[in-house]
């Protein structure tokens, strides 16, 4: 993740912590817009590992900070509890790491982002929240361009196949990336795979 954020000029890492106490102290001393945290944040010398308590504490003490939780947890009840506790976004460790950057960009403007596998699990369990509606929708033409691009077609090849101007295809790809909150091609590929657009 350090490399991911370092490569993105729109993100600055202002602090790092390896336990809940250090994290809370850093948040008090160092202003930030988005917190990215593992759900498992053990305290040294104890068995305490209550991720929900940490999320609630951050939400209570630092209401303006968006919280992105990265986890391997698959239990639907826990996933639902994480969101209910105040997490802005929820990313599965099983999905491409680039999606953390996407989640951060969504969270930074107050939009929720939930990994596709989690959305499916929550929906199957009857969770009523419509996560897909909280993301910007691509137009049919933007979806078409993104799908072809993710399959390995160049902008020129897509323009030829769809019988459109190269500049139009380039603009539609750029507009789609802006809507999805991704800044580069690897991020776009990761989003397409995770969201089943390809």
Give the tags.
198 residues, Rossmann fold, Arc Repressor Mutant, subunit A, 2 domains, 10 helices, 4 strands, 51% helix
Account of the 3D structure:
The chain is α/β, with parallel strands linked by helices. The chain folds into two domains: 2-134, Response regulator (Rossmann fold), CATH 3.40.50; 140-195, Arc Repressor Mutant, subunit A (Orthogonal Bundle). Helices cover 51% and strands 9% of the residues. The chain contains ten helices and four strands; from the N terminus they run H-H-E-H-E-H-E-H-E-H-H-H-H-H. Strands 1-2-3-4 form a four-stranded parallel beta sheet. Helix 8 packs across helix 9.
Mean pLDDT: 81
Strand percentage: 5-15%
User: What profile does the largest beta sheet have?
Assistant: 4 strands, parallel
CATH homologous superfamily label of the largest domain: Response regulator
Low-confidence spans: none
Give the count of helical stretches. Answer: 10
CATH topology of the largest domain: Rossmann fold
Count all strands and give the number: 4
CATH class of the largest domain: Alpha Beta
Beginning-to-end CA distance, first to last residue: 25 Å
CATH architectural designation of the largest domain: 3-Layer(aba) Sandwich
Order of helices and strands: HHEHEHEHEHHHHH
Structural class: alpha/beta
Net shape: elongated
The rounded Rg comes to: 18 Å
Helix content: 40-55%
Total number of domains: 2
Strand order of the largest sheet: 1-2-3-4
